[in-house]
Amino acid sequence: MKATQLLHNLGQSLWLDNITRDLLDNGTLQQYINELSVTGLTSNPTIFDHAIKGSASYDASIRAGLSKGRAGEQLFFDLALDDLTRAADLFRPIYDRTNTVDGWVSLEVSPLLAHDTASTLAAAKELFARAARPNLFIKIPGTKEGVPAIEEAIFSGIPINVTLLFSRDHYIASAEAFRRGIERRIQAGLNPNVGSVASVFISRWDAAVVEKVPAALRNQLGLAVAKQTYKAARALLTSPHWQRIYNAGARPQRLLWASTGTKDPSASEILYVKGLAAPFTVNTMPEKTLKALATNNELGSILPADGGDCEDVLAEFAKAGVDINALAAKLQEDGAKSFVKSWNELLAVIASKSEALKKAG
Question: Helices 146-155 and 168-187: crossing angle, nearest 10°?
Fold first, then answer.
C-alpha cells in the first residue's frame, strides 16, 4: 500500500501545496484525489506567481479581465478565485462526506496587510463572500496584528487557515484567538462550527541554522519544534476551555504542517512527512514531495503525543547558541517579507502579461 494511503488511514489529511490551471484542466488534481489520497489544497502568492508566469492558460482570463477594466490586485484575485472555486468544487464531495472536517482549499489575503488588523479582516470577509464556497479557507498570518483579525474572522463565521506560525507560542496565540472567536459565537447564539487550521512551518527552521550548528544536529530542529507544538496542541484539545466549546457543537482547530518539502539535498525528500505522521493533523506538501511519498510503502513511527525527545533536542540547539524564541520571531518576520516579495513579483508578472496581451490585440 502506498504511504499516501497509509497516512490517510492513520488519520492525517494530505493536502497539495500547489495549484495551477493546468492541474485543473488536464485532470491531474483529480488524479491526485483518486490515487494519492489528496483531500485538500493550499495556495500562496509564490505558487500563483509560478503558475501564471509559467503558463499561457491564464491569458484568456487576463484578456477578459482587461476588457472589464480589471488590473493589478483585482485581476489577480479574479484569476485565483477562478482556480480555487474549481478546486473547491472538486473537493466538495470530501467536505460533505467528512462533515466539514476535510476537503478544503485556501486563499491568502494580500501579504501587504500582514500588520494591518482592520484591513486584513475586511479583505477576509470580501474574499470569502466572493468565493461563495463553504470549503474555502482564508489565510491570515499569525502575526501580532493578525491574531485579533483571526478572532474577529472566526466570530464572523469565516473559516481561517492561520499561516506563518513557527513555534509553540505562535501556535498557542492563534489557537486561543480561534477559541475566543468560537466562544463569542456561542454567547451570541450562533453556530460554533467554523473551520480552522493552524499552519506551522517546518523546513525553514533547519535552513536557518544549517551553517550554525554541529553536523549531528542537522535537520533536527524543525521536527523538534513540531513535536513541541504537537504536545501543546494535544494539551489544548483536552483542556476544559476547549471541551466546553466542543460540547456546544464546535470542531477543534487542526494543526497543519507546512513547508514540508526538504530543503537539504542530502536528506530524504520525505524527511518531514515521515517525521510528522500523526492523526488529526494535516500535512500540506509540494507535488515533488507528494510523488516521492507515493513511491514508499511504509511510514515509520507516529509523532509522540508527549513530544518525545523534543525538549532534549531543543536543549542541544540552545547549547549550540540557537535562541529558539528569537529565531521564531525572525522566521515569521522574514516569512512575511518573503510573501510581500512574491506578491510584488506576482503583480509584476500580471502587469507584464497584461501589456503583452494588449499589444498582441
Answer: 30
Query: In angstroms, rounded to a whole number, what is the distance separating the alpha carbons of residues 164 and 331?
Result: 9
- pTM exceeding 0.90: yes
Helix (H) / strand (E) containing 36: none
Active site residues: 139
Half-sphere exposure of 49 (CA within 13 A, CB side): 14
Per-residue pLDDT of the chain (361 residues; tens, 9 = 90+): 899 999 999 999 999 999 999 999 999 999 999 999 999 999 999 999 999 988 899 999 999 999 999 999 999 999 999 999 999 999 999 999 999 999 999 999 999 998 899 999 999 999 999 999 999 999 999 999 999 999 999 999 999 999 999 999 999 999 999 999 999 999 999 999 999 999 999 999 999 999 999 999 999 999 999 999 999 999 999 999 999 999 999 999 999 999 999 999 999 999 999 999 999 999 999 999 999 999 999 888 899 999 999 999 999 999 999 999 999 999 999 999 999 999 999 999 999 999 988 888 7
- Residue type, position 349, single letter: V
- Distance, CA of 155 to CA of 291 (rounded, Å): 38
Separation CA 113–CA 339 (nearest Å)? 11
